[in-house]
Amino acid sequence: MSALIELSGVTKVFHEGRHNALVALEGIDLAIEEGRITVLKGPSGSGKTTLLTILGCLARPTAGRVRVAGEVVSNLPETFLADMRRRTFGVVFQQFHLVTGLSALTNVMLPAYPTGRRHGEIARRAGALLHQLGLARLAQARVEWLSGGEQQRVAIARALINDPPVILADEPTANLDSALSAEFLGILGGLRDEGRTVILSSHDPRVCDAPLVDHVVRLLDGKLAA
Amino acid sequence: MVPVPPDSSSTSGPPLHRFRPIQALGIALGVLAICLVAVALDLARTRPSRAEAERLTSTLGLTDLALVNEARYLRHLSLADLHSPFQDHPVALEHFPAGAVIAPPTHLRVSARPSAPPLCR
Amino acid sequence: MRRWISRQALLIDYTLSALARRGGRSLGLLVVYAGVVFLLASTMLFTNALRSEARAILAHSPEVLLQKLKAGRHSYLTQADLDRLGRLRGVSRIEGRKWGYFFDPVFGATYTLMAPASNSPGRGKIHVGDGVARTRGLSTGDTLALRSAAGGLHVFTVERLFSPESSLVAADLIVMHPADWGAFFELPDDVFTDAALSVVNPLEVRSIARKVGDRIPETRVILREEILRTYDALFDWREGLLLALASMAVAAFAILAWNQASGLSVDERREIGILKAIGWDTRDVLTMKLWEGTLISGAAFFLGFLGAFVHVFHFEAALIAPALKGWSVLYPRLVLTPSVDAVSFLTLGLLTVLPFTLATLVPAWRAAITDPDEVMRGTT
């Protein structure tokens, strides 16, 4: 398996130059292999979420290089980066970050709006994803009325609408009970079987120690640990 | 890749999409256009005629619009001279509300006809 | 092209749903904005319509008007004065005009009493303007009693009412027989308020005006072009009336645009962060915000303008006409010919839609160019 995403000497500093500057990551060298499930493991404050956002090109590193499929992306202009991000990554956030006031279906469709595809085509695909995840009857429900597990599945469907090869999930089981956690891991396994690359950040042993996880990356205080 | 069924309504239960907001916008624009047409037609139908006003102006030699009835120099603005606002007292201040928004006629202003004899001002 | 249209349609969908979700605020903004446009457009339509009416109607005014001055104040012309004019080359007719003001203390209204030399009503009969008829509750056949300055009561019979459509020039007119006029004001027959001259060649008007001044000293000549210029200036946007009404609206609009430009709410910034995180780029976010500004300002502009059009031409500018009425008891029916000046319409549109749309883009720009992670964490 080849490395899909490579990080070389990546450092991330928040509020650089100010009195409250924070070094979230330092000197990270990491390769994420294609078609596997990778978990970023570490205690709270270790930099897992920051590393995940850099892997998903949601944030630029302060120093170092990020390559995706062999191309350096960390210094790409914003328009190209956004287009690449849309085509390559689907993200499931810890707080889900669904747009309240919109239906589950519309939330799932949102990432596809700028692609120029027809409304009907996007709606059909979104409906199919919700159906696959067992949420067909809740398609028109407002997302704020859904349970935590249902919202997470809407977030997963939204991450899949543009058919990205890489799925990122930040602390996906933080708000779920054991049964829902197991269900979630099952969905991840299905995504890996489709050939997608899955990257998770978690400190939950149910996730980190799950048999279907292919690779565990340990982080401590912003650096890779042994 | 997630397979897309040809007719999702048979597998997903309730209809997939409701009324789109842009469709509502389209209807609103349609209603606005109808209102515009209705207003235009109504006003065209009841369009006032200037014929009598023009006839009276011509036969009676009228010189001003009867817009303001407060004071002489406002009623017949084009015939006013610089003295009429001060008819009561040389330093009488403007006390008619409409006089506050109506300036003296252009031919009374400093830049008017340089060729005119002084008494014509 | 089709993809571009699809993309715009979807962005509009999102924009409309975002506006609907902020329902109260969006509606408030629309109402205030439309109100500002309504006031500006009403003022513009009203003054343009009055200017058009003045130009059209007063084009039939006398070409040259002659006034007598004594000690710098208006005085009467006599028949002897008019005889001194004699036969002036280029003047086809010289007509002495008899007219004056009468203040009616019962109603607090001032009437203009006129007595034309020809085609006047019969003795004891009057033709009455629409404003007088409304104020006094008069119909054809009714009698009108006026007490002269000397104390005598003069009773007239209303023979005819001028139509409401002539109200702009004839609202306060009472037209009577010259002999009745003279008796009422106790003025002899050979005295005139002023004189109207008809000129054969309009290009000679100024030279004729000079000759008149030479023949009769202590006179003042007013030309038709000056009458028309007076009303052009009266309704010009730089003058008091329009400026007074419009300045409030402009100030309100400036505050509105400033409020838009001053920043996004926390929720709006977070929403932009989410959109960027799920795959929208800066261009998409700004396009969405551009649609937001355009939709609000476009809707407000059209609603405000339509409302203004109906207000001015159907309801006779009921909300802004009082600015002209002042203390007037008697005022004309403002039955104006509907018209929209294309240049004014486009200018008003550009002045309201463009700044507001740009003001909407300004705060969105900063959020749109920031890394989505920072926006969502709230570290910007």
**How many helices of chain C does DSSP assign?**
14
How would a crystallographer describe the biggest sheet of chain B? none
What structural class do you assign from the helix and strand content of chain C? alpha+beta
- List unreliable stretches of 5+ residues of chain C: none
Largest protein interface? B-C, 58 and 90 residues
Query: How many helices of chain B?
Result: 4
What is the strand tally of chain B? 0
Order of helices and strands of chain B: HHHH
Number of domains of chain C: 2
Indicate the structural class of chain B. Answer: mainly alpha
Radius of gyration of chain B: 32 Å
Main sheet attributes: strand count, strand direction, barrel closure of chain C: 10 strands, mixed
Q: Helical percent range of chain B?
A: 25-40%
Mean pLDDT of chain B: 71
Briefly, what is this?
The complex is a heterotrimer of chains A (226), B (121) and C (380). Chain A is an alpha/beta fold and 226 residues long.
Overview of the molecule:
The complex is a heterotrimer of chains A (226), B (121) and C (380). Chain A has 226 residues and is α/β, with parallel strands linked by helices. Chain A contains seven helices and ten strands. In chain A, 49% of the residues are buried. Chain B has 121 residues and is an all-alpha fold. Chain B contains four helices and no strands. Chain C has two domains: 2-57 and 234-377, no CATH class; 73-217, Barwin-like endoglucanases, CATH 2.40.40.20. Chain C is built from 14 helices and twelve strands. In chain C, the strands form two sheets. In chain C, strands 1, 2, 4, 5, 6, 7, 8, 9, 11 and 12 form a ten-stranded mixed sheet that branches. A two-stranded antiparallel ribbon of chain C has the order 3-10. Chain C starts with a helix and ends with a helix. Chains in contact: A-B, A-C, B-C. The interface between A and B is medium-sized, with 19 and 15 residues.
